[in-house]
Specification:
mainly alpha, 3% strand, 23 helices, globular, 523 residues
């Protein structure tokens, strides 16, 4: 407590000195401090990347301590009294700020208030627990042993609820988790969007899977076997460079669960390779590349301020899902990349016609595992996880009862029931570090991606012909202008309205699924 009182006194003293300062030097100093805080955050991200890519098993406990130490330093920087004093002075003289400067100050105030309400010891504890949770999940998944993961997950839920309480969200803890990843979103809003989507999606899935074409698509996909990893690695590198990823400012490695982290100056992506499932690594890589393109499109000079930060995870996922699905599953895209695939894998692709390959790329088949799901059934997995998380946070569902509840929900929503927890409740990494409320971002990102796609087609009807020529420059430039360079100016809901002229809804996404998959399977 003495430390906090001293920090407050220093802040008061500095604030009095700032009273006569003009906004220009005060804003310059604020941005310097914000950029330093951001730099410390990137160190934590790099530790996390290394943990999942390179860390030897024996280093797990040391890494937890490293995460805790860095988190403490980052938190001290984010909650420094000097930032509070500068914000107070700038808010008092807001009339002298430009609109962009006022935006930076407003978001910095929100971030500062959050940081100062979280005790340093809690921040240390949560960082160490996130690291330990990841390794506990890896062991539990490998052994198909959910019981060993129960104490970790119970602790993560408890920490999430404590965090919400510190920030004034007691009784609305799950709303806090949603708002943390996507500002402005609530359980009620997501319930409404998902309910509307589910009503449209379930009959569409049934119509597609009942089609004779479904069998032909599956037969085509099962011929894609025996693809050497080095060939896959070369192909996905060429494809991701083709669509615009800058490998001078990023790299791709291998991890248990694909992810993307880092900043536009140093993007760290991962994928995983399976000799008999080459499309898995390809589309996982394109998905993560979508995240990477967004980070590389954020204004580098503004890194650490609201002008150089992403707008939330639904917007982030809209970028990854748009490149993965609307672009990389299109006919134009495959007209361009198919010859190269066949050149790299002549024996493996010899028995497939171009149309059969395209069916394999757009196979619709319910699956137990989310990251292996096609884009039609994928959102059913997100709805399932949303339902589980709501019940966990309301107290309706205990952690130890998750496997049985998962199996029942999977049977009802996805139409399949896992025989192991590895293929069920343990399949995703997100809960291991307490990333509750993140899953809905995937589905919301799908909705926004479809709206952005149709807006782009309205402006540029010949996009797929450009893809067929290997030209993705217009789409990337448009996304850079409308989404990436906007930073945190608009949240997902406002961005949808401004760029597409419509409220965020499932309508465009359902239209897209009907047009692409209806043409392949139903008509």
């Amino acid at each position: 407590m003495a430390e906090w009182r001293q920090r407050a006194r220093l802040g008061d003293a500095r604030c009095s000195k700032l009273a006569g300062m003009t906004t220009e030097p005060a804003f310059a100093e604020l941005t310097t401090l914000l950029k330093r805080t951001h730099a410390l955050g990137t160190v934590a991200e790099l530790l996390g990347w290394d943990e999942q890519v390179n860390l030897p098993p024996g280093g797990a406990e040391q890494r937890a301590a490293q995460h805790a130490a860095v988190a403490e330093v980052h938190h001290a920087a984010a909650s420094a009294g000097r930032i509070g004093a500068l914000l107070g002075a700038l808010e008092a003289g807001a009339g002298g700020l430009t609109p962009d400067e006022r935006l930076v100050v407003a978001h910095a105030r929100k971030d500062y208030e959050r940081a100062t309400k979280l005790p340093a010891e809690f921040v240390r504890e949560k960082a160490a627990q996130s690291s330990r949770g990841y390794h506990a999940w890896v062991r539990a998944k490998a052994a198909d042993d959910f019981a060993s993961f129960v104490p970790v997950l119970e602790k993560n839920v408890e920490l999430a609820k404590r965090e919400a309480a510190y920030l004034g969200w007691s009784g609305r803890e799950y709303d806090y988790m949603l708002d943390k990843h996507d500002p402005g979103l609530t359980t009620v809003a997501v319930d409404r969007l998902f309910g509307e989507l589910k009503r449209e999606l379930v009959p569409l899935v049934r119509a597609i899977t009942a089609s004779p074409t479904a069998g032909r698509a599956k037969a085509a996909e099962t011929t894609l076997r025996g693809f050497p990893v080095e060939g896959q690695r070369a192909f996905l590198r060429e494809v991701t460079e083709l669509i615009g990823f800058d490998y001078e400012r990023g790299r791709i490695d291998v991890s248990l669960h694909p992810f993307c982290s880092g900043t536009g100056s140093d993007v760290r992506m991962t994928t995983r390779f399976k000799v008999d499932e080459p499309l898995d690594s390809l589309f996982a890589s394109i998905h993560e590349t979508g995240h990477g393109l967004y980070e590389q499109g954020l204004p580098a000079a503004q890194a650490g301020t609201a002008l150089g930060q992403h707008a939330g995870m639904a917007v982030h996922e809209s970028q990854s899902r748009l490149w993965e699905n609307q672009v990389a599953r299109s006919r134009g895209f495959w007209r361009n990349v198919e010859p190269r695939l066949r050149a790299l894998f002549p024996t493996q692709t010899a028995g497939l016609t171009g149309e059969e390959l395209y069916l394999a790329v757009n196979l619709v088949e319910p699956t137990l595992v989310r990251v292996e799901a096609d884009e039609v059934t994928y959102n059913l997995h997100i709805i399932l996880r949303f339902e589980m998380e709501k019940k966990l946070f309301s107290g309706e569902l205990a952690v130890r009862d998750l496997p049985a509840a998962w199996c029942a929900a999977s049977r009802e929503i996805v139409g399949l029931e896992p025989s192991t927890d590895r293929a069920g409740v343990l399949q995703d990494v997100h809960w291991s570090d307490g990333a509750f409320g993140y899953f809905p971002s995937y589905c919301l990102g799908n909705l926004l991606a479809a709206q952005l796609w149709y807006r782009a087609l309205t402006l540029r009807p010949g996009l797929e012909e450009e893809f067929a020529r290997g030209d993705f420059s217009w789409l990337l430039a448009w996304l850079r202008a409308e989404v990436h360079t906007q930073g945190r100016r608009f949240d997902a809901l406002e961005l949808a309205r401004r760029v597409t002229g419509e409220e965020l809804s499932p309508r465009a996404f359902v239209r897209y699924l009907r047009e692409r998959y209806g043409a392949l399977y139903v008509n």
